[in-house]
Amino acid sequence: MIQKKRDGNGLKSEEIQFIIKGYTDGTIPDYQMSALTMAIYFQGMTEQERADLTMAMVESGDQIDLAKIKGIKVDKHSTGGVGDTTTLVLGPLVASVGVPVAKMSGRGLGHTGGTIDKLEAVSGFHVEIENEEFIQLVNQNKIAVIGQSGNLTPADKKLYSLRDVTATVNSIPLIASSIMSKKIAAGADAVVLDVKTGAGAFMKKIDDSRELAQAMVRIGNNVGRKTMAVISDMSQPLGFAIGNALEVKEAIDTLKGVGPDDLTELCLTLGSHMVFVGGKAESLSEARTLLEESIKSGRALETFKVFLASQGGDASVVDDPERLPQAKYIYELEAKSDGYVSEIIADEVGTAAMLLGAGRATKESVIDLAVGLVLKKKIGDQVKTGDSLLTIYSNFSDVTEVRNKLYNSITISEQKVDAPVLIHEEITE
Ligand code: URA
Ligand code: CA
């Protein structure tokens, strides 16, 4: 089978199942799997092979059964980025118009915490709930979040670690099947993908982002899960806030209709697809109207409160965000010249937030929920010397290192610069 793939021939369904089963149970060793992934890296995979690989990985471990939840379970996945507050907003937003959100979430490494870390900035909120309670909460409130449990896609875990050390992460068929297998094992009937593009994204070039988006959309649709993708900008951080409690506050603002324009627009775009595929609207424009009305009427915000309270959280933070963890020191990063913001290197800004303690550098790191950054200017904005470019929220008094890093990651140019396009493409087949 390694030889077949090396020579550019296709693998049959049974062969892919045999490989994934053998690799999961250890009868196929790492060295053979390494050779195969390298062959796949160079030869690619057909649409059928990609679908077969995805389902073989889904079947390598537990699968979450959401059958007891009424309605079409639509999951959303973002391919990463900096300060991406969309999940916090989208959950309550689409739930408020009747789309069930049954979210399994993790902590993970990165610039900020995962969705669970962010939500834990709300005092008392917890995700250690039993499956039955989880299902009952989704039926009752249309939204609940549970921590990762069970043995989901063990084949992907093993394969991803192997790819990491064999220079085979960057293969479209392998990335696409890896991501889709996790969504399907977690019980999604339909998947809306937010594929990021630009300097702060996993895929920096639009052509690569499109190829990945198309690959995932095809896999999903070929295995009977309606899937679509939005390609969105990550040339600078999304929204203003990067940090856990700060992003909860930003999500509250957005659900109130006073959030950052880019975050609001992306949430309405992704949310419209979720509502449409969830069968709660006849068209994307009707779906968008429903979501806009839910923000205006306060229903989206109310759904967020009920969700927080149902999982032990202090829902009064919604009306009184001062109750969220607060940093001891607040500093402004002042512009050193007049002009226009022309670049905000998302990765670097994210790393600065991590240095403050907003994210985990290693699995053992402890997150400081209060700290992070709030941008005051985005690409295209005019600035004068002394204007605040962003606010630093820290629990250390000395932020010299963070300051220097931030100055190196933000460029001010003399020429006027356009704001980047936010939504590049929407891919539905
Ligand atoms: N993210 C994943 O989950 N899998 C990949 O292969 C790459 C990115
Ligand atoms: Ca943000």
Description of the molecule:
With 429 residues, the chain is α/β, with parallel strands linked by helices. The protein contains 16 helices and 13 strands. It has helices at residues 2-6, 13-25, 30-43, 47-58, 86-95, 115-119, 131-141, 154-164, 172-185, 206-222, 244-256, 261-277, 284-297, 299-310, 346-356, 400-409, and strands at residues 74-78, 101-105, 143-147, 190-197, 226-233, 241-242, 329-334, 339-344, 372-375, 382-383, 388-394, 410-413, 423-427. The strands form four sheets. A four-stranded mixed beta sheet has the order 1-4-5-13, sandwiched between helices. It has a four-stranded antiparallel beta sheet with strand order 6-9-11-7, sandwiched between helices. α10 links the parallel β4 and β5. α5 packs across α14 and α12 (261-277) packs across α13 (284-297). Residues 160, 169, 174-175, 178-179 line the site of uracil (URA). The site of calcium ion has 8 residues, from β6 and α11.
Helix percent band? 40-55%
Cα(first) to Cα(last) distance is 30 Å
Summarize the helix and strand pattern as letters: HHHHEHEHHEHHEHEEHHHHEEHEEEHEE
Mean pLDDT: 96
Spatial order of the strands in the main sheet?
A: 1-4-5-13
Give the oligomeric state: single chain
Bound molecules: uracil, calcium ion
Helical element count? Answer: 16
Cα Rg: 22 Å
Number of strands: 13
Q: Kindly estimate the percentage of residues that lie in beta strands according to DSSP.
A: 15-25%
Parts with pLDDT < 50 across at least 5 consecutive residues: none
- Biggest sheet character: 4 strands, mixed
Which class best fits the helix and strand makeup?
alpha/beta
Q: Name the overall outline.
A: globular
